[in-house]
Amino acid sequence: MKVPNLLRRIFPKPRSRVGWRDALPLIIFLILYAATILTVISFDVFTFTKPLMFGLIVVSVWVWWMATCGWSGLNRWRSTQALIVRLILVGVFVAMLAEPRSVRTTDELSVVYAVDISESIHPDRVTDALTFVAKTTSQKPLQDVAGWIAFGSSAAVEVPPIQTNYGSTMSNPEEIRFNSRVDRDATNIENALSLAAAILPEDRRGRIVLISDGSETTGDLKTVLDQLNSREISVDVLPVKYQYDNETWVERLDLPQSVKIGEPYEASVVISSLQAGKGKLIIEENGEPITEDPIEITFEEGKNRIDIPIYLRSPGYYEYEATLIPEEGADGRDENNRAVGYIYVEGEGKVLIVRDPIRDDDRDYEHLARAIREGERAIEVVDSYRFPRDSLSLLPYDCVVFANVAHDAFDEVQLQALRDAVFNQGTGFLMTGGDNSFGPGGYHRTIVEEVLPVSMDITKKKVLPKGALAIILHTCEFAEGNTWAKRITKQAIKVLGNQDDVGVIAYGPGGEQWIVDLAPASQYEDMVPAINSAVIGDMPAFGPTMQIGLDGLSKSDAATKHMIIISDGDPQIPAPNLLNKFISEKISVSTIAIFPHGGIEIETLRNIANATDGRYYFPADPNELPSIFIKEAKTLKRSMIQEKDFTPDVGFPSPVLEGIDGLPPLHGFVLTSLKENALTENILFTIPEDAAEEETDPVLAIWRYGLGTTAAFTSSLSNQWARDWVDWNDYTAFVKQLLIRISRVEKTGSLRMWTYNSGGEGVIVVEDFHPEEDFLDVAAKVSGPGGTELSIPLKQVGPRRYQGTFPVNDKGQFQVTTIGKSGDREDRVHGGFIVSYSPEFLKFTSNMSTLQQIKDETAGTELSADSTAEDIYNRRTPKQSSKPIFDWFLIALACLLPLDVAVRRVQLDWSVVKSMLGFGSKKETTQTMGALLQRKKQVGEHLKSERPSKPFQPTGQKSPYLTTDAQRTAAPSKPKTEKPKNAPPKQDESTTSRLLQMKRKRSEDDDSPDQK
User: Fold this and answer.
1) Within 13 A of 417's CA, how many CA atoms are on the CB side?
2) pTM of the prediction?
3) pLDDT, tens digit, 9 for 90 and up, residues 222-258
4) Could you tell me the strand order of the sheet in which 46-48 lies?
C-alpha cells in the first residue's frame, strides 16, 4: 500500500471544512497537559522514570482529527464533549507509560552504628564504643531512628533502624548486649558497611557511624564505597586508637617435613619482636612438655630463630605447640605468643573404631575388632567424644569404622574432619548397621550421608509406616534464642525421611499459627524460607498452639505421632482435657526448658511431657539443643529397622568375596536406598519376599568418594543381627578383605611438599625428585576453616621446584593436597599447616589511613569520644524518595473509559433532568407520541372525506360490486371524464392531498383499457 493511501486511511478527508477555531480544543489540551506535567515535576510532586514516553502524546492529534472531521457521528456539541474526555484519557495513559512515581521529601535521619568487636579491639574499647552509642542515641531527635550492628569477619544486626524510639533500650550501655554470633577472628569493614547500608530505609537520609580501628584483614572497600556514594550515604568514623610499642610474638613453628624413626631432628621457633628482650619458651608434644623446665631464651629486635631438638620414637601424628612467655612489660598482648605445627610419620596404617560413648556395651564392635586383629591390622577403639576434630589427626588411620554410633554423639567439626580425611587424604570409611546407624541414627541429610554410597531416603518402600512431627517454638530468652530455635528445627527436619510429615507452629503477630503446615519432609527446601522468615513471639498460653498441633496430627495418617515444645515455660498451662486428647490420640509430647524463670515453669513443662509419655529436657547449655532435637526426631525413624531372617544375595563381583562361598543368614538390617551412581558397587543385597516386587535393599555397598573409598554394611558385624556370622569360618577373611578394599593405599611418590604461613599468606613449595626430569602441571587444593575451598596453580620457580601462595584470613588448620601431572604420570602429596591465632593479633596500631579514606570518599566526618548527638544528627539535608503510583493512574483509566463510552452512546434529556431536580415546569413525557396520534387522526378523516360515495365503474367493464345478472344489466354506463394531465395543483391543497391524488391517478391509469 502506498504512503498517500495509508495516510488517507489514517487521516480521512473531513466531511466539512476545518478551520483554525476547530483546533482550539487540542491546543488548549496540549498546553494544559504540558503545564500540568511540568508543574508536578518542578514542585517534586511526581517524577517519571521514562519521560521519553510523553512523545506518544502525538496520538491526541489523530483523536482530534477524527472528532473534528465528523467521523465520530455525533453533533458538534456532543463531539466536543467526547473529544475532551478522550484527550484526557490519552493523556492519562501516556503518563502511565512514563512510569510515574510519587515523590516524598524529608530531612529525617536514619543512623546505623557499626561497632567493631573483632579480636584486635580490646574489650575495654568495645565497652567505650557501646557507651558512645548509648549516649548519642539517647539524645537524638525523636523523628530520627537509630540502630546498630556488630561486626568482625562477619556482621550481624543487633537493633534494626525501624520507626521506633530506641532511647529506652539503647540509652543504657548495660542494656546493650550482643545477641548475634559474630566471628571475631578477622575484620571485614566491607561486610559491615554493606550490611549497614542494606538495613537503612530508602525514604530517609541514611548515615553510618563506623567505630573501628580500621585494621581491615579481609574484604574490598572500593566496591562498597561506590555503592554508598550512589545512595548518598555518608560514613562518620570514630577511630579506636591504640599502639603497642612493646610487642613480641611467635611467628611460626617450623618442623621437618620428612623424618625417620629413631633419628634426632630440630624444631625451629621463629620469634619476632619490636625490641630486644628475654623470655621463656615451652615446647609441647601432643600436649606434653618435651622438657621439664621452660627454656630460657634471649631475643633481639626483629626476627629470631630458636632451634629445639626433638626425637621421634614411633610412627604417628605428632602435634607440637610452642608458647612464649616474655618478661613482664615486654609484650602488649599474649594472644599471639603461641604457634602450632605437626609432623606425620608414616607407619603401619591403623583402623579406628568409633563407639557410642553412652552405651556401655562392647557387643557393637567386639567381634569386629577381634577379626581385624586376626587379620594382622593395628586397631584403636575410641568413643565419639575423643574422635579427632581435624582431618590431619586422622592421617595415622587408613580406615575409620562407625560401629552403631548416633549422629548426635558427634559435633559438626568432627564430622567435617571425617569428610575431609576421606575426600582429600583417601582415608577409608565404613558404617555398620544398628539402631543408632544410618537413618535411625539421625544421619539423614548430613555430611556423613554425602560420604556413604547409600541414602537414608526410602520413598520407594511401600510398606514402611511414616511418622508425623509437630514442633512448637516459643521465644527463647537467651542470646540469639530465635535464631537457635530456627537452626535446630531445620536440623531436626533433616533427620526425618521424605515420607514423614513435619510442621512448625509458633505464636507470632497473627497469633497462634502454622509457620510450616504439616507436610512431607521431602519439601524441606520449600520449608526453609518460611522457617527463616518466621517472627516468633512471646506465647501467652500453651493451649492454643498445642490444640493447633493436635488438630493437624489427628488428621495425619502417620503411624507414629510426636510433638516437641521448646519454651521457657512461662505460658499458661494447658487444660487437663487437652492433655487427655493427646493421650487418647497416642501423641507423645517432649518438652525442652530453656532458661525458665522458676520452679513453676519447670514443673509445667515436666508435667506436659510426663502426662503424654514424652521426655523432658533441661539443658544447661544451648549448644545441647541440636542433639536434643535430633534425638527427638529420631523417634520417628525406628520403623526403618527391619528385624527379620534373610540370606543376602551376591550382586556386584568384588574382591571382598574372593575365596568365600556361601553366606550365613543375617537377622536384621536398616533400610536404605542405593545411590543412583554407576560407580556404586551393590555387592550384597536382600531378596524381596514378594517375587512380584523388583526392589531390593542394599546390605553391602561400596563406592569412591574423592580420594577415599567408603562402604555401608546395613546389617551389623557384631551384635545379634550377625550372630551366625561371628562364628562363621570365613568371617575374619570377609572383614579383612572388606577393610583392604576400602582402606587408604599409600603410594610412594616423587613429590615433596613444604607448606607454611608467612605474613598472612599460605606458601606452598613442591619439589620433584623423580628419576626422569619432566615438566609438571602442578596444582594444589586447599581446604581450611570456615569451609574454605581453593584451587591454587603452582608456578615453576626453579629446576623441579614449584611454588604458589593463597590468602590466610582465619585461624585453624589448612589442609593441602598437591597433584603433579605429566603424560601418564600422576603424583600426589598431602600436607598442611596450622594457623595458631587470628591475623587480628598481628595488628599493633590502628589504621587511620583506611578510616580517612572511608570518611573522605563518603563525605563523612571524624568523631571523637567527646562528640555529641548534635555532631551526628544536626547535619542533615533533605532527601527525596519515590514510590511507584502506577495503580493510581490505572484507577483513573478505569473511571475514564466508562465516561468516554457514556458520552458517545448515551443522550440525556436535560428537560427531564431539570424536572427531576425540581427546576422548570413538568411536561408530559408522552408529548411526542400524542402529537403523532393527533396527526394520524387528521389524515384518516381527510382520506375519508375524499373517498367517493359509491364504487367507481368504468365504461364497458363489469363492476365487481354487481353480484347478479339483473344488477349488471341495470347498471347505467357513464362517459369517463378526463382531467387535464398537467393541471396545476390547487394552492390550498395540502401535501397529503397531492400525494393521494397522485396515487388515485396511477390506479386509474393501471385500470384503463389501454393497459389491458
Assistant:
1) 20
2) 0.60
3) 889 988 998 889 999 999 988 888 889 998 888 887 7
4) 46-48, 100-106, 879-884
